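In the laboratory, one determines a bound structure by crystallizing the protein with its ligand and collecting diffraction data. In a computational setting the workflow is compressed into a single prediction: the sequence and the ligand go in, and a structural description comes out. We illustrate the idea with adenosine-3',5'-cyclic-monophosphate.
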Amino acid sequence: MTLRQRVYAVLDSERLSPAARRLRAAEIIAILAGLTSVAAGTIDGLATGARALAAGATGVVATLFLVEYLIRLWVAPEAPHHSDVSDTRARLRWARSGEGIVDLLAVIPVIAVASGGPSSAPDSASMFVLLWVLKLAAHAPGVELIIRVVYNERRALGAVLVLFIIALLSAATLLHLAEEAGQPDEYGSIPASLWWAIVTLTTTGYGDVVPKTVFGRTVAGGVMVCGVAVLALLAGILATGFAEEVKRREFVRIWELVARVPFFAEVGAVAISDIVGRLRSRNYPSGAMILRRGTPGDAMYFIVSGEVEVRVGAQPVYLRDGAFFGEMALLDRRPRSADVVAVSACTLLILNVAEFYQIAGQQPALVQAIEAEAKRRHADNRTRSAPPVVDD
Ligand code: CMP
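The predicted complex, in structure-token form:
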């Protein structure tokens, strides 16, 4: 692996490696530190020392972003979707992409800092906040999820928006008719009444403009109720959209992990899709105690990556990628027969006991394969003369 490939692997936002995660977290911390220093620099009564500190921090963060931009430009040819073009063209493509433009905008403060620093021009410094907020939005986890949810729910959200516009225009027109005579400045035209309508419909209610006639107040009551209903609808649509999108992503993630466990390769696609929805994944650090001998069996585990040590008898057994454990307690309905400890960092898929029995009913072949292995392990343990586990 070349140095450029290694750097790309860490910078690639799609990767979930610990180094990539750490870098992303550091990047977000740097953006937040930059935003704080710029915001602090705009406070009028700040002491000279604190102002200089804020300006210095802004400069450091801006320089870090410049270095990051140059590195991202350098590694751009490593992106899989740039494999068919020359290095220069790949870099140009990246520079013109949304991510490239946002990162370039974030570098603009470097020029400002170099030519006098934000301490000398606090107003221009506040512009950095907008540029760095943009960078935060582009790199923060979850922002992409929100955009996806809004896109997925665009039809339902569009329908609510139409409802909102209808309510807004009706409210403004009715209030204009009711209040025009008494309050010509506030309700003299429909556009002027729109301010009251939007403040009321969004349930903000500044109270700067209020209806005085009985009819106006009656309409206002209806508009307030409509406002609550529209907001409730919006919240419901977004919450459902979020739950569905998160579930979909989790399904795809687990599906990819399941594909790495050879045991599941023999099961058909339909059966796998049935199992995937019932599994959850968990990472264990090296040395973690995963199962303790004598405790009740509540789940079984499939190893996606890593190695575990099963402490049976004098000679432990080591299980690696693709193997499973924790099945004996579920099949025998007895406590755990051994301690199981992670000897390296592990990613495991976990199938809880209730789901295990449901699958046993629907996928007998799968459970038979697990039973056959459990039988072999029982025989193996007898030869190891492991001390028996006593039921409570
Ligand atoms: P369980 O008894 O639920 O918890 C401990 C697990 O260790 C057990 O299920 C098996 O999955 C695993 N195990 C026990 N004995 C052996 C063995 N001889 N070889 C491999 N795995 C074992």
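Residues 214-259 form the longest helix (46 residues). Keep in mind that any predicted model is a hypothesis to be tested, not a measurement.
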